[in-house]
Amino acid sequence: MYEEFFDSKRQEQMRRSFLKIAEKGNLKSYKKNSIIKIPDKKCIVIVISGNIKQSIYSMDGEEKILYLLQGGEIFKEMDYFCGGESTLVTKALEDSTISILEEEVIENILLENPNIYRDIIHSITRKFRIVMFQMANMAFSDSLGKVADTLIRLYYQEGQDMDRGKKINEKFTHEEIAKLIGCSRVTVTRALNKFKDENMLEINNGEIIIRDIENLEKFIKWK
């Protein structure tokens, strides 16, 4: 279902394109679990290495993860072109390095290479689709469907094929999956155990491999 929306070749092309221009920015490194605060100025940020999450929080402190960013992906692009300041909280999931491209640098890059606009539009569209699919999943799926849908989408966003199945490149705790889906950790654990028992998943130290994507897709309640 997600293959046509998250084309792996197009995503890799976008990441390579952004990494090529990352050297033109100001590099900053962050330790695992550090909050990433960007100066209040017009800029676009490229993730060079590591993994970063962007979340929203309720007034009670409950977290909902919206985006997971790996090397070659960007953030603050919507702020740059649409104005305003994002309320998302950005945090390093592991030791990470970013490149901050300020307005003058970005404008020069766009003048020299207008094709970068295509990659920025692709990034914005990709994020819109991620949020749209999250909303549909939360609205229409039961607990098993929410977990199944999220794992399949993560594979298409950032996975790879292996002899043993379809691997999700990023490692996740049950708590992190719960914050992606918007449900409890206990609910996620029960769903993962069911999928493991029925040989649809293989999980080892946070590494998730989908062994039977066809049967996993049967739990999804929307199209």
Shape, per Cα inertia axes: globular
Uncertain stretches of 5 or more adjacent residues: none
Order of SSEs:
HEEEEEHEEHHHEEHHEEH
| Spatial separation of the terminal alpha carbons | 8 Å
Question: Approximately what portion of the residues adopt beta-strand conformation?
Answer: 25-35%
Radius of gyration: 18 Å
What does this protein look like?
The strands form three sheets. The protein has a four-stranded antiparallel beta sheet. Strands 8-9-11-10 form a four-stranded antiparallel beta sheet. Strands 4-3-6 form a three-stranded antiparallel beta sheet. The mean pLDDT is 94. It is α+β, with helices and mostly antiparallel strands. A hairpin with a 5-residue loop joins strand 3 (51-57) and strand 4 (63-70). Helix 1 (8-21) packs across helix 4 and helix 5 (143-158) packs across helix 7 (185-197). Helices cover 43% and strands 25% of the residues. Residues 141-214 form the HTH crp-type domain. InterPro entries: cNMP-bd_dom, cNMP-bd_dom_sf, HTH_CRP, RmlC-like_jellyroll, WH-like_DNA-bd_sf, WH_DNA-bd_sf. Keywords: DNA-binding, Transcription, Transcription regulation.
Q: Keyphrases for this structure?
A:
Jelly Rolls; Arc Repressor Mutant, subunit A; DNA binding; 25% strand; 2 domains; 4-stranded antiparallel beta sheet; transcription; alpha+beta; 223 residues; 43% helix
List the helices and strands and how they pair.
Elements: H1 8-21, E1 26-30, E2 43-49, E3 51-57, E4 63-70, E5 74-75, H2 77-82, E6 89-92, E7 96-102, H3 103-112, H4 116-140, H5 143-158, E8 159-162, E9 165-168, H6 174-181, H7 185-197, E10 201-204, E11 207-210, H8 213-217
Antiparallel strand pairs: 1-7, 2-5, 2-7, 3-4, 3-6, 8-9, 9-11, 10-11
Helix pairs in contact: 1-4, 5-7, 6-7
